[in-house]
């Protein structure tokens, strides 16, 4: 690719078609997808009810701006907040959702300090990147947004940094880009309790962990957490660009007319898709994801965990990190898996990351386990 900024190191094939959990490249090779387009196409590819909803909206109107009433936004928002006293701000990406959260937290509290965590990922714009705990991707872009502090994730010490001077704490319940690191449930609940006690807002970034990925609509619902602000994007419209910031209604006064905005955010196509997605992600569907995940984890623990080159497995639901020993390079494993017809992802610290579409079947998951096992063993032998 000659005329594209080289911000991505790309694999030399192109995906030209998708159906269910199967992708086809420009050479006609088929793949079992364990990436969901990085946690986006959680309901698979070419999914009939979503496709039909977007097509129907295409025939009506694609864009109108946020100057007019939008029942489409209201419908999607009501499915996101359910019966809770919360409001939604729609935008176009996870970055934008976190940017909105940062702005709302500052304006609503009248304070500026934010506490974020090491190895977090919240996006690439100045606000969201400033809250991201990854020096490598920040290199050369400073100075950053001021008053953003960092603490060690899962460390009891972090609790002492939650003081009334803070506007907000922002965290992921499972750090996705940071290496699929599970927040310790007791630590997460202690952070939430300390925030409440010190009158500090709690922002939970559910851009990757949300939309059924862990078997709940949002991962925080696996624990006793009551965030003031939740951000969503990736899986929310199954591939149509969208982001959402969901905040308690008591914060709404700080986001009055003219305070924040977006041209495309909440556009009709994204709302039609998000509504179709949220209608599918009902309790029965999520229960089925939990059952599939139990089955998957049984085989991951039985077949993959004991392998000599595996340090451990982390994650929850259908978000999985297989931590490889340093004598095997995750990039090589991913390339070997391409040859075996399986698409996977990496994450920090030599982690093989799996984010399969939630519609994947048990037998497909079992096939994935066997191919990954075989590939891990053969890659080491072949080195
Ligand atoms: C991907 C991601 C983002 C950024 O989302 P974009 O849509 O790429 O801007 C933010 N937070 C988390 C946890 C993510 O995984």
Automatic annotation (TrEMBL):
<feature type="modified residue" description="N6-(pyridoxal phosphate)lysine">
    <location>
        <position position="234"/>
    </location>
</feature>
<feature type="binding site">
    <location>
        <begin position="94"/>
        <end position="95"/>
    </location>
    <ligand>
        <name>pyridoxal 5'-phosphate</name>
    </ligand>
</feature>
<protein>
    <recommendedName>
        <fullName>Acetylornithine aminotransferase</fullName>
        <ecNumber>2.6.1.11</ecNumber>
    </recommendedName>
</protein>
<dbReference type="InterPro" id="IPR004636">
    <property type="entry name" value="AcOrn/SuccOrn_fam"/>
</dbReference>
<comment type="similarity">
    <text>Belongs to the class-III pyridoxal-phosphate-dependent aminotransferase family. ArgD subfamily.</text>
</comment>
<dbReference type="InterPro" id="IPR050103">
    <property type="entry name" value="Class-III_PLP-dep_AT"/>
</dbReference>
<dbReference type="InterPro" id="IPR005814">
    <property type="entry name" value="Aminotrans_3"/>
</dbReference>
<keyword id="KW-0663">Pyridoxal phosphate</keyword>
<keyword id="KW-0808">Transferase</keyword>
<dbReference type="GO" id="GO:0030170">
    <property type="term" value="F:pyridoxal phosphate binding"/>
</dbReference>
<feature type="binding site">
    <location>
        <begin position="205"/>
        <end position="208"/>
    </location>
    <ligand>
        <name>pyridoxal 5'-phosphate</name>
    </ligand>
</feature>
<dbReference type="GO" id="GO:0005737">
    <property type="term" value="C:cytoplasm"/>
</dbReference>
<dbReference type="InterPro" id="IPR015421">
    <property type="entry name" value="PyrdxlP-dep_Trfase_major"/>
</dbReference>
<feature type="binding site">
    <location>
        <position position="262"/>
    </location>
    <ligand>
        <name>N(2)-acetyl-L-ornithine</name>
    </ligand>
</feature>
<dbReference type="InterPro" id="IPR049704">
    <property type="entry name" value="Aminotrans_3_PPA_site"/>
</dbReference>
<dbReference type="GO" id="GO:0006526">
    <property type="term" value="P:L-arginine biosynthetic process"/>
</dbReference>
<comment type="subunit">
    <text>Homodimer.</text>
</comment>
<dbReference type="Pfam" id="PF00202">
    <property type="entry name" value="Aminotran_3"/>
</dbReference>
<keyword id="KW-0055">Arginine biosynthesis</keyword>
<dbReference type="InterPro" id="IPR015422">
    <property type="entry name" value="PyrdxlP-dep_Trfase_small"/>
</dbReference>
<comment type="pathway">
    <text>Amino-acid biosynthesis; L-arginine biosynthesis; N(2)-acetyl-L-ornithine from L-glutamate: step 4/4.</text>
</comment>
<dbReference type="InterPro" id="IPR015424">
    <property type="entry name" value="PyrdxlP-dep_Trfase"/>
</dbReference>
<dbReference type="GO" id="GO:0003992">
    <property type="term" value="F:N2-acetyl-L-ornithine:2-oxoglutarate 5-aminotransferase activity"/>
</dbReference>
<feature type="binding site">
    <location>
        <position position="121"/>
    </location>
    <ligand>
        <name>pyridoxal 5'-phosphate</name>
    </ligand>
</feature>
<keyword id="KW-0028">Amino-acid biosynthesis</keyword>
<keyword id="KW-0963">Cytoplasm</keyword>
<feature type="binding site">
    <location>
        <position position="124"/>
    </location>
    <ligand>
        <name>N(2)-acetyl-L-ornithine</name>
    </ligand>
</feature>
<dbReference type="GO" id="GO:0042802">
    <property type="term" value="F:identical protein binding"/>
</dbReference>
<feature type="binding site">
    <location>
        <position position="263"/>
    </location>
    <ligand>
        <name>pyridoxal 5'-phosphate</name>
    </ligand>
</feature>
<keyword id="KW-0032">Aminotransferase</keyword>
């Amino acid at each position: 690719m000659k005329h594209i900024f080289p911000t991505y190191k790309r694999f030399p094939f192109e995906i030209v078609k998708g159906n269910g959990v199967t992708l086809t490249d420009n050479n006609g090779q088929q793949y079992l997808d364990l990436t969901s387009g990085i946690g986006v196409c959680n309901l698979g590819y070419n999914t009939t009810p979503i496709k039909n909803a977007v097509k129907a909206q295409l025939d009506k109107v694609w864009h109108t701006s946020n100057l007019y009433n939008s029942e489409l936004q209201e419908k999607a928002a009501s499915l996101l907040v359910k019966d809770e006293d919360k409001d939604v701000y729609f935008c176009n990406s996870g970055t934008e959702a976190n940017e909105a959260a940062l702005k709302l937290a500052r304006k609503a509290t009248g304070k500026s300090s934010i506490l974020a965590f090491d190895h977090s990922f919240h996006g690439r714009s100045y606000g969201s990147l400033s809250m991201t705990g990854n020096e490598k991707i920040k290199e050369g872009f400073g100075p950053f947004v001021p008053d953003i502090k960092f603490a060690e994730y899962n460390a009891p010490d972090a609790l002492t940094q939650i003081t009334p001077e803070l506007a907000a704490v922002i965290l992921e319940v499972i750090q996705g880009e940071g290496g699929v690191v599970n927040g310790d449930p007791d630590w997460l609940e202690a952070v939430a309790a300390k925030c409440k006690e010190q009158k500090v807002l709690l922002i939970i970034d559910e851009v990757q962990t949300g939309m059924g990925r862990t078997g709940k609509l949002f991962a925080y619902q696996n624990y006793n957490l009551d965030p003031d602000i939740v951000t969503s994007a990736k899986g929310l419209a199954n591939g149509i660009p969208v982001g959402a910031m969901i905040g308690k209604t008591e914060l709404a006064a700080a986001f009055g007319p003219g305070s924040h905005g977006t041209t495309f955010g909440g556009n009709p196509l994204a709302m039609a898709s998000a509504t179709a997605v949220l209608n599918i992600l009902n309790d029965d569907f999520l229960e089925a994801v939990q059952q599939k995940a139990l089955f998957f984890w049984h085989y991951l623990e039985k077949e993959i965990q004991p392998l000599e080159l595996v340090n451990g497995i982390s994650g929850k639901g259908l978000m999985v990190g297989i931590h490889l020993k340093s004598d095997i390079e995750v990039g090589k494993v991913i390339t070997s898996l391409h040859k075996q017809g399986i698409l996977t992802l990496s994450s920090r610290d030599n982690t093989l990351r799996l984010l399969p579409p939630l519609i994947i079947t048990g037998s497909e998951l079992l096939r994935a386990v066997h191919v990954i096992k075989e590939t891990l063993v053969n890659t080491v032998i072949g080195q």
